[in-house]
Design brief:
heterodimer, A: alpha/beta, TIM Barrel, three-stranded parallel β-sheet, 8 strands, 34% helix, 14% strand, B: alpha/beta, six-stranded parallel β-sheet, 10 helices, globular
C-alpha cells in the first residue's frame, strides 16, 4: 500500500505543471500509489484560500482513491464554517495549513487546531512549496521553520501533526522531538542529499516518516525513488504507506 | 504493484554516467577510503556506473571556498586522484582550478590532465564566466580535447558575486566556440537559462542540482535536442535516485534517455576516460 500524503492539483504561477487531477492521479498510479491526498495549489496565492476547497471536493469525489485535503486559514473570518463544510466530506482525513503564504504565525491557528482534534482530523503544515532561490523575485515566501511546527505539535498533543516539505537536515535536527512527541510526523517529499532518507532511518525515525510526492510540482519517479532506492523493504514499506495507514483514521 | 516490481520499474534501463559528483571530502569523512565507499554504495543502489568527480575544498578540511588559492586547488585535485585510485573503473576525475589565477590554472591543468590523465576541468564561482581569466583555461581545454564543467545558477534571491548566470556561460561559449562546455544545474538555470544557451551548440546542460521540478528535462530536450543534455546529480548535495528521476520521469523518447544517461557524456569525455557510447 502506497499512500501519498502530500500531493497537489491545479496551477502554479511561476512554473508550468500538468496539474489537473486526472493527470496527477495517472502520474502517481504509474508507480503504484494507491491513495492520493491532494490540496489545491491555487490556494497558496489567494487571499481567501478556502475558495478552492469546494471545487476540490467535487473533482476528488469522482475518484475513490483521491482524498481531498482542504486548505484552511485561521485568519479568514469564516474558518469555522469552512471546517464544518470539510467535516461533511467523508474522505477528508486531514487538512492543510500554508502559514507562509497567508501569512500568519502558527499560534494564530491554535483554536483551529483544537477544533481539528474534536473532528478527529489530522493536519499537515507545509514548511515550503518552492526553493526560495527559484521563486519569482517579486513573490518571495520564506520557509516556515520545521521547529515551529514541532512547537505547534507540542501545544496540541491530541492532534496528529505532519511537517510537510521539510528537508533532511531539518528533520534530523528534530530527531529527539519527533521521537518524544507521539503526535508529530514528517513527510519526506523534500528530503534530499546523499542517503537523504537512509540517514533518518538510521537515526531511528522510520515510524515518524511519511511518503509525500509534491506532485505535480515535483516528478513522481523522484519521489518514489527517494524512498525505495536506499532502504530495505521493511523501512520502505513503513514510509510508503504503513505509517500513514496507522496514524490516519481512513 | 509490489515493492519488488516498483524497484524494478525505478531501475535505469541502461548504464548511467553521472557527470557531476563531489567527493564528500575530509570535512565530512575520515578517509578517502570511506569517502569512496559511501559514494560507490549510493551509486550501486541507484544504478549509476561511472561518475565524474571534483572536490571543491582542500584536503586540509576547510569548507568550500569560493576563491581558493591554487595551493588549495592542488590539494583538492590530489584528493581527487586518491579517489580515482580507490576505483579507477568508476571514478573519472576532473581538475578544479580558479580563473583568478589563469596561468597557474593552466599549469595545474597540465599537471592533472597531461600528467595524471584527468578527464575534464571544473570551474565554480570564483569569477563569472564573462571574466577574461577564464580564457586561457578554455583555450587549454580545447588543445587537450577535454570538457569544461562550469557552475551556473539563476537565483531569484541573487547570485553570489562571482557566481555565473546561464547568460555568462553563453558568453563564454561564444568566445570559445571550439570548447566543449557543460553548463551545470539545469534546474538552477531554469526555464530562462535554457533559452540563453539555445544558440550555443558547444554547450551541453547537466541535469544536476535543484529540486526535481516537473518538465525541466523535457523542456531542455525540446529546446536543445537530446544530444545536449547530460545526466548529473551534484551528489552529495542531491540524492542520486531523485536526480535520475528528472530524466527517467520525463516524457522524452527512449533513445534520448540513453543519450542523456550515457552517450552524451561519452562523446564529451576524452578517449582516455575509456567511456564508449552504447
Amino acid at each position: 500500500m502506497i499512500i501519498d500524503l502530500n500531493a497537489f492539483t491545479g496551477h502554479w504561477p511561476s512554473h508550468p505543471v500538468t496539474g489537473d487531477l486526472n493527470s496527477v492521479r495517472a502520474s502517481l498510479h504509474e508507480y503504484g500509489v494507491d491513495r492520493i491526498c491532494v490540496s489545491p495549489l491555487e490556494a497558496a496565492w489567494c487571499r481567501n484560500p478556502h475558495r478552492f476547497n469546494e471545487a476540490l471536493y467535487r473533482t476528488a469525489g469522482t475518484f475513490p482513491d483521491v482524498y481531498p485535503v482542504p486548505v484552511l486559514d485561521p485568519t479568514v473570518a469564516t474558518w469555522k464554517k469552512e471546517l464544518e463544510r470539510a467535516t461533511r466530506e467523508l474522505r477528508v482525513k486531514l487538512v492543510r495549513l500554508l502559514p507562509a503564504y497567508s501569512p500568519y504565525a502558527l499560534e494564530a491557528a491554535d483554536e483551529l487546531l483544537e477544533a481539528l482534534v474534536a473532528e478527529n482530523l489530522a493536519v499537515i503544515i507545509q514548511t515550503r512549496l518552492e526553493d526560495p532561490r527559484r521563486q519569482h523575485q517579486l513573490a518571495q515566501v520564506p520557509d516556515i521553520p520545521a521547529a515551529e511546527i514541532a512547537n505547534t505539535a507540542e501545544r496540541h498533543p491530541a492532534l496528529t501533526v505532519i511537517i510537510g516539505g521539510a528537508r533532511t537536515g531539518e528533520i534530523r535536527g528534530l530527531k529527539d522531538r519527533l521521537l518524544a512527541s507521539p503526535n508529530l510526523y514528517a513527510d519526506v517529499s523534500q528530503c534530499d542529499g546523499l542517503d537523504a532518507i537512509k540517514v533518518l532511518v538510521e537515526e531511528g525515525l522510520t515510524e515518524k516518516l511519511l511518503f509525500g510526492s509534491h506532485a505535480p510540482l515535483f516528478i513522481p519517479y523522484s519521489a518514489l525513488s527517494r524512498v525505495v532506492t536506499d532502504l530495505a523493504d521493511e523501512d520502505a514499506a513503513a514510509i510508503l504507506g504503513d505509517n500513514a495507514e496507522r496514524i490516519i483514521t481512513w | 504493484m509490489t515493492l519488488t516490481e516498483l524497484r524494478e520499474k525505478l531501475r535505469p534501463p541502461c548504464p548511467a554516467l553521472d557527470i557531476h559528483v563531489h567527493p564528500l571530502g575530509p570535512k565530512r569523512v575520515d578517509s578517502v577510503d570511506e569517502d569512496a565507499r559511501q559514494i560507490l554504495a549510493a551509486a550501486d543502489r541507484a544504478g549509476v556506473e561511472k561518475m565524474c568527480i571534483f572536490l571543491l575544498h582542500p584536503a586540509s578540511g576547510e569548507g568550500q571556498l569560493p576563491e581558493p588559492t591554487m595551493d588549495q586547488c592542488r590539494e583538492a585535485n590530489d584528493y581527487n586522484l586518491q579517489m580515482r585510485e580507490r576505483s579507477p573503473d568508476r571514478f573519472i576525475p576532473f581538475c578544479y582550478v580558479n580563473p583568478m589565477y589563469p596561468q597557474e590554472s593552466v599549469a595545474e591543468i597540465d599537471r592533472c590532465v597531461e600528467g595524471e590523465q584527468m578527464c575534464g576541468i571544473k570551474l565554480w564561482i570564483a569569477r563569472r564566466a564573462t571574466d577574461p581569466g577564464l580564457d586561457p583555461i578554455l583555450q587549454r581545454s580545447v588543445e587537450l580535447g577535454i570538457p569544461v564543467l562550469q557552475h551556473a545558477w539563476d537565483k531569484t534571491t541573487g547570485n553570489l558575486s562571482g557566481e555565473p548566470f546561464p547568460q555568462d556561460v553563453a558568453h563564454l561559449a561564444k568566445r570559445h566556440p571550439e570548447a566543449k562546455i557543460i553548463m551545470a544545474h539545469l534546474n538552477g538555470c531554469g526555464l530562462r537559462g535554457v533559452e540563453h544557451v539555445i544558440d550555443c551548440p558547444n554547450i551541453t546542460v547537466d541535469t544536476g542540482g535543484g529540486d526535481p521540478e516537473a518538465g525541466m528535462v523535457d523542456t531542455a530536450v525540446n529546446a536543445l535536442g537530446g544530444k545536449r543534455v547530460v545526466f548529473a546529480s551534484d551528489l552529495p548535495v542531491r540524492l542520486l535516485g531523485q536526480c535520475l528521476g528528472k530524466t527517467l520521469g520525463a516524457n522524452i523518447p527512449e533513445q534520448f534517455v540513453r543519450d542523456i544517461l550515457w552517450n552524451n557524456a561519452a562523446r564529451l569525455l576524452p578517449e582516455w576516460a575509456g567511456v564508449k557510447p552504447i
